[in-house]
Amino acid sequence: MRRLAAAFAYHDFRTLWLGSLTSTIGTWMQNIAQNWLILSMTGSAFYLGLDAFLQQLPIMLFTLIGGVIADRRDRRLMLMTSQYIQMASALTLAALVFFNVVQVWHVLTLSFITGLAQSFGGPANQALLPSLVEKQDLPNAVALNSIQFNLARIIGPLLAGIAMAAYGMVFCFTVNGFSFLVVILALMLLHVKHVPPKAPQRMVDGLRDGFHYVKHRSGLIAITVIASATTFLGYPLMTFLPIFAQKIFHEAVGGYSVMMAFSGAGAVGGALLVAWMGKYRGMGLTVLSVQALFGVLIVAFALSPSVWLSYAVLFCTGASMMVIFSTANSLVQLIVPNEIRGRVMSIYLFAFRGAMPVGSLIAGYIASRTSAPFILAINGVLLTLVAAYFLARDHGIKAL
Question: Which of 250, 338, 375, 400 could form a disulfide with 284 if both were Cys (CB 3.0 to 4.6 A apart)?
Fold first, then answer.
């Protein structure tokens, strides 16, 4: 148990973890309600993909700038500003739905604004995390962060299903809006401070140094490519869950919530495994092996004839996805020094999260012309082939 909870010995990590858990539960409640709202308004897989695309598009546009700023400004203040903007976005959507004036373009616009806030908050959060714990406990901290995210992915969808049935979508959006106050308070209570350089570089010079650092480390490039391939080809599985629940298994929103909960439970299990393992030799090889398995599981879900079999496969995909994400993130954090961490993590996030909207948009378009099971099966095969390529050619990742 001490190995599993090593990072909880640090006050600042523990405080931020609890605040983030509360806020992330609210975020998942909104995600469920928002996806169901879009599907109810449009009945289209394309609009689900477009919404995911617009929420992640700012990651592609502004994360690199956010990384430079995270190395030059107070990272806590950056995170707090991001939380305030996301809170305003959630409460605005609640008001639009409450007054029955919401249109699909409102939802898409607010998703873009939320993504814009995250494009600056993400690099700051990633750069702040190693300051909260000692280096030997960093993989444990990354895994515990993944656990809080995925505990929320279990609790949030289940609460959303109950809340939507009892109180409607407005309740979910409102709860999410006020949940950001908890993480803002946690950030105020942190003891750690990031002291930016007194004479910061020009923006373009900071960006160039970040790319130069990554360019000359082949293992770091390989990790980034693997992570982006996983989100590009694997994230449409999550985007299309409402389609599988409603149109294939003929379930109501409760069935969709249960699917999300099984996936979240598997992710918690995967993150617990990573937290227990800590830092060890062969982490890169683990990422590649589990990615190959993840591709096979996506194909199994796409072809599953039974909702109960789908639940079991979703549990396994959640575990696999989290082992890949947590281990890859830990490797990047362990490699990068603090003074350039914001910029390098922004490059990683650009590839990792930027691949989500593109993958969801392309998959959504193809699914609208064919079917969601067809495109997921193709993605699963491609993901396994990517892992096989790096297992055969290495590029430095297996030595990490």
Answer: 400
State the residue range of the domain holding 328: 6-393
Q: Residue 26: left (phi > 0), alpha (psi -120 to 50), or beta?
A: alpha
Closest CA to 256 of 6, 35, 10: 35
Indicate whether 213 belongs to any domain.
yes
Residue 76 contacts residue 194 (beta carbons within 8 Å): yes
**HSE (side-chain half, CA atoms, 13 Å) at 123:** 33
Question: Which pLDDT tens digit goes with each residue over 234-275?
Answer: 888 888 888 888 888 887 777 877 888 888 888 888 878 877
Q: Please give the Cα distance from 175 to 172 (Å, whole number).
A: 5
Joined together, the tokens standing for residue 296 give 């096979």
pTM value is 0.72
CA dihedral of 278, 282, 287, 291, whole degrees rounded to 10: -130
Helix-strand-coil percent breakdown of the chain, rounded to 5? 85, 0, 15
In tens, the pLDDT along 19-69 reads 999 999 999 899 989 988 998 898 887 888 788 788 878 877 888 788 888
| End-to-end alpha carbon distance in the chain | 26
Q: Which residue has the tokens 């069935």?
A: 255
Number of domains observed in the structure of the chain: 1
